[in-house]
């Protein structure tokens, strides 16, 4: 199982074309997490709690001047919409937008499923896929309307995030190389 340090080291390996932003200055408190668990009925594993009390929430994106954002109604291969990902969470930071918080993401999940797969904590840009966590299990959802279209991730949160950095970097390289052809 990967550690927080391995995750952050993998983040440091990204070049300057990547932008990372989060709530590192004011991440969640243990009390905040406990209250959220009590209010929602979710149980967060130690790696999720570690992430929340260290990072709060994070955004990983390829800078817009490098990866042009698709326009509305663009017809492109789906991966070209995946210029980044969002790791939602909890924070003490008043500057953190509400759309990056667990509460708003849980409400969003409830809009299309009566019983979501857990706490929505991750989304790849372009709405390519989402991930949920509850009781130490990470579930990746590919179709938010299909109850059975998900897979269980084998690993902890940091394994998952390292894999997502690898996926994003691979797509970035493909995007860059396509522009050279």
UniProtKB/TrEMBL annotation:
Origin: domain of life: Bacteria
The organism of origin for this protein: Chryseobacterium phosphatilyticum
Domain annotation Knr4/Smi1-like: ranges: 27-178
InterPro entries attached to this UniProt entry: Knr4/Smi1-like_dom, Knr4/Smi1-like_sf
Lineage of origin: Bacteria, Pseudomonadati, Bacteroidota, Flavobacteriia, Flavobacteriales
The protein's name: Knr4/Smi1-like domain-containing protein
